Amino acid sequence: MKATRVSKVIVIVAALTLGFLTATGMAQNFKIGMIYSGTGSGAHTGIYAQHGVELAVEQINAQGIGGKKLDIIYENDDTSTEKSVTAAKKLIYGDKVLAILGPEMSSCIFAVQKVTEEAKIPMISPTGSSPKLTEEKQQWYFRNSPSARYQTVDLVEYIKAQGIKKLGLLVDWGRTSDQAKTFEEDAKRVGLTITVMEKFQTGDTSFMSQLLKIKGENVDGLVFFAMPTEGSAGAIQARDLGITVPLFGIIAMSYKEYIEMGGKAVEGTVVPTTFIPDNPDPAVQKFNEMFNAKFKVLPDHAAAHSYDATLILAEVLKKVKLDNKPESLASDRQKIRDGLATIKNYRGVSVPINYGPNATADDRDGMKSLMLVQVKNGKWAIIKK
Amino acid sequence: MFFYQLLAGLSVGCIYALVALGYSLIFASIRLLHFAQGDLLMMGGFFALSMVLGLKLGLYTGIVMVMVAVAVLGFFIERIAYRPIPQRMIAARIMATLGIGLILRNMAVIIWGPQPRGLPPQVFSGPPIKLPGMVIPPAYYLVLIISVSIMILLTLFLGKTKLGLAMRTTAHDQNLAELMGIETSRVMSLSFMIGAALAAAAGMLVAPVTFISQNMGFRLGIKGFAAAVLGGFGNIPGSMIGGLALGLLETFGGGFISSGYKDCIAFVVLILVLIFRPSGILGKFHVEKV
Amino acid sequence: MVKPQTFPMMIAFVLLFFLPSLSGNNYYVLHVSIMVGIFVILSQGLNILFGYAGQISIGHAAFYAIGAYASAIAAHHFSFPFALALLAAVLFTSLIGFLLGITCLRLRGEYLAITTVAFGEIVQVILTQWEEVSGGPEGFLTIPKAHLSSFIVDTPEKYYYLTLVITVLIMILTRNLASSKLGRSFQSVKDDILAANIMGIDTTRVKIVAFVLSAAYSGLAGSLYAHYSRALLPDYFNLSLSVLIFMMVMLGGMGTLYGPIVGAILLTVSFELLRALQVYQMVIYGIVVLLVTIFAPEGLVGITRKMFRKKPVNAVQP
Fold first, then answer.
1. Which residues constitute the domain of residue B70?
2. Is the separation of the CB atoms in A57 and A70 below 8 Å?
3. Confidence (pLDDT) at A271
4. Is the ipTM of this complex over 0.90?
5. d(CA A132, CA C11)
6. Minimum mean pLDDT among A119-123, A368-372, B194-198: which range?
7. What average pLDDT is seen over chain B?
8. Quick check: is B284 in a domain?
9. Residue B284: what pLDDT?
10. Phi then psi for A65, rounded to 5 degrees?
11. How many structural domains does chain B have?
12. Cβ atoms C155, C34 nearer than 8 A
């Protein structure tokens, strides 16, 4: 009697253990965290970045990665650096994710870097242009967007090639100072003169005083460092004042809203960018279709970058053998980081992406070559790949 | 060039004036510092978007519909969120306005999406006025004409109609108004609704120079407030003057100081006025308790 | 203090002391706890100015920022040890508080509120533009860890205990302040400034002291934050943050000793709990704020007091 009872218990326990092992084995999806600005002033970028990830995850999970799926945990940071940090800590220590996507605003990224460096977990941000993000020996950070350093190089060469010598700059200092600074350095390097630089603040609606100063300096070209709102308003007001010189801008302006708001005034503007929906490349068109079908809007570069970032992460997860157990968290995160470092010439829906093993800007800035686009007949057209 | 700056300054000044009028009207009638006024402006902008894109309305019908829609919204906000709190609890009422602001901004994102949107420029179309030496784009003069019309209508309404008289009496002395048989409760609602409508109009009129986004209300709201203080808080003609003055001050003053600090102009003006002449340019001196 | 209140306090203190081990040293829980502690100090500072002395301020993020940056600059550029940097931050912020207090002497109510908002904006603009001092929009990122002689506060648990100790000290200080002569003169300035003057209270001095103390608290909180996060971005110290601190004081219960604690915990924790709602998070958050304001305009502490009162409350004021 006792023997049968004991053996029954053993069988039940064994069955349960086996069941538990296989169940956890099967349920061991890859947990990844994403921090995005769902509310607050950065919501525009954050929500699109989140959509990009969501679309990628849908695609990836349709096939799975070696029988497992991606579990993404989304956390809103309300465009607050402190809430970004809290979200990061929750994901890292609470949810124990393998890697983190996001955040989007440079200030939030700076703050979260302190956390990820200490926790030794890889972080991929789909936006963020401040050069310092990769220049302080950050070991665990990957920038899946162009640093301000690369954004302005191609533009400066192009401007020089047009025979332009003197430039006027109109800068949203609070948001784009990093790009203005690298632009100045690059311009000096190729022999362009920046005759005047005027500043303004995000949300300003009148640039009359600044533009009049610029007009007085007789520049050959005008460069806006602004968001589409202020950029297009600035363009209109510049044209109203009789400033007829060519206009240039930054990646943040490469939206259709810039053209919609600016109308005729913005025709001919040239900006560097990594993504425009009008890119005839079939991969981009397919991406547009899927994005539009799911979210009823066209994607922007934040969405494109985060989409590519997620797919890159999936590739790494496919290649690298992870134990994916609670005990192996630290080594798993390390393997993912090392795996990301081997990505070379990845072609997604934006520009080619390359990473390397060292904690240098060279190796951790994924996008180094941008394309140039110009407003032609009311649309963005690629003029240099 | 001076003329362009003058026009630009007056244009933006009119926007500030409309916002300032809203603040003053609401403060005069229900003694509420309506922190969410900028967010009502934002709602006006988004409603304008829907009216123009969805209902295909033009500028004039559009602005009327926008003002009516936000006035109705204002009616509910005032009844539900502000009226329940006694007037003497200043801080609690401010909190209520902050809560409403939070709700409005986030509802806007949910309804219209997070992307800043532009009103199609055709809305503000018309023949450009050609003068010797320059061309005035239609956006500038249309904004001026419409906002000045609204201000004239408001002044006539307050000065010449019975309802306007009732509003002024209630604002001046609520008890007296009740003794005279005025239904102060309805009058106060109406005042708030008009204040909301003014903000909404500003929201649509600012469209030629900015995108409509959930955060547009803060900057414009604060500047409108500074304008109201400058002209005399609670004072109707004062708010108009204050608005225009601030617009001109900002446009011309930006040439003198580093443009990065230009925004500070409105805030510094605000603080200076509050310290040295709290009644503003036209206001009656507010008897402060020590 | 009424005796029944000390027993739950002691339990609370024991729980707080063992929090790190109870949570399994979960850095997320520790982080939220440290931030709650810092917000308690910040809210208590505003409470002194606003809850006790009746001066409305919706610009307190500015003092927080000034304290944080002052401490960071002292520690990084002048190599001050932590305790000294903290002291420098407190003193410098108090000085600014003094200046603001003088500026705002004749202002009351809504006018004062708006001036403080303007002050907050000006400070934020200066921090963003004055790069040589603050590091500009890209932030001040080179802040040394807090250390007390050779003891480095380098783990979240250590920082948690540091914050806990300072917060408790601040609470004790505030309790003594509230029941002191100065505290009572705050109350009289808030209630009826004319009567206070007649009674011989130097209301000018009282108001200025309130501003200075309030700024000092905020400077302290700022210093703690600077050496904990070790990353200061001017973006963070905006009007929304000032509004948050204001909400903590209002919702918790202005003019009460424990109000700031209730407010700080309520607003921090509810944001975390509402995470699951994704996009609707902030809308619900706003609705919660609105509802508490309408149904408990004097704050939650006030409401619970009323609930526990045994005698019937007569002649409720309209």
1. 2-214
2. yes
3. 93
4. no
5. 47
6. A368-372
7. 84
8. no
9. 56
10. -120, 95
11. 1
12. no
Q: How far apart are CA A298 and CA A290, in angstroms?
A: 9
- Range A305-314 average pLDDT: 95
Q: Which of C36, C225, C235, C280 is most worth mutating to test chain A (most A CB atoms within 10 A of its CB)?
A: C235
Q: Which of residues 55-114 of C touch B (CB under 8 A)?
A: 56, 58, 103, 106-111, 113-114
Q: Mapped to the 3 state alphabet, what secondary structure does chain A carry?
A: CHHHHHHHHHHHHHHHHHHHHHHHHHHCCEEEEEEECCCCCCHHHHHHHHHHHHHHHHHHHHHCECCECEEEEEEECCCCHHHHHHHHHHHHHHCCCCEEECCCCHHHHHHHHHHHHHHCCCEEECCCCCCHHHHCCCCCEEEEEECHHHHHHHHHHHHHHCCCCEEEEEEEHHHHHHHHHHHHHHHHHHCCEEEEEEEECCCCCCCHHHHHHHHHCCCCEEEEECCHHHHHHHHHHHHHCCCCCCEECCHHHCCHHHHHHHHHHHCCCEEEECCCCCCCCHHHHHHHHHHHHHHCCCCCHHHHHHHHHHHHHHHHHHHCCCCCCHHHHHHHHHHHHHHHCCCCCECCCCCCECCCCCCCHHHHEEECCCEEEEEECCEEEEEEC
pLDDT digits 0-9 by tens, B151-164: 999 999 988 888 88
The answer to whether residue B275 scores a pLDDT higher than 80 is: no
Distance from CA of C248 to the nearest CA of B (A): 11
Contact A200 B5 (CB under 8 A): no
Assigned domain for B107 exists: yes
Compute the nearest-CA separation of A19 from chain C (Å).
28
Express each pLDDT in C152-178 by its tens digit.
888 888 889 889 999 999 999 998 888
Does residue A221 contact residue A168 with C-beta atoms inside 8 Å? yes
Please state whether beta strands A166-172 and B129-131 pair in parallel, antiparallel, or not at all (unpaired). Answer: unpaired
Amino acid, res. A372? L
In a 3-state reduction of DSSP, which class is residue C25? coil
What are the helix (H) ranges across B113-235?
138-160, 162-172, 174-179, 184-205, 216-231
Does the CB of B216 have a partner CB in chain A at under 8 Å?
A: yes
> Which of C32, C138, C275 is opposite residue A130, by nearest beta carbon?
C138
Q: Which of A36, A37, A44, A259 to mutate to test the interface with B (most CBs of B within 10 A)?
A: A44
As given in the structure block, the two tokens for residue B163 are 């309802």
CB C164 within 8 A of CB C37: yes
| Model confidence at C258: pLDDT above 60 | yes
Band the pLDDT of A323: cuts 50, 70, 90. Answer: confident
Q: Residue A308: what residue type?
A: D
Q: Domain for residue B21, yes or no?
A: yes
pLDDT digits (tens, 9 = 90+) for C125-146: 889 888 888 888 778 888 888 8
Q: Which chains touch C (3 or more CB pairs under 8 A)?
A: A, B
From A177, which residue of chain C is nearest by alpha-carbon distance? Answer: C137
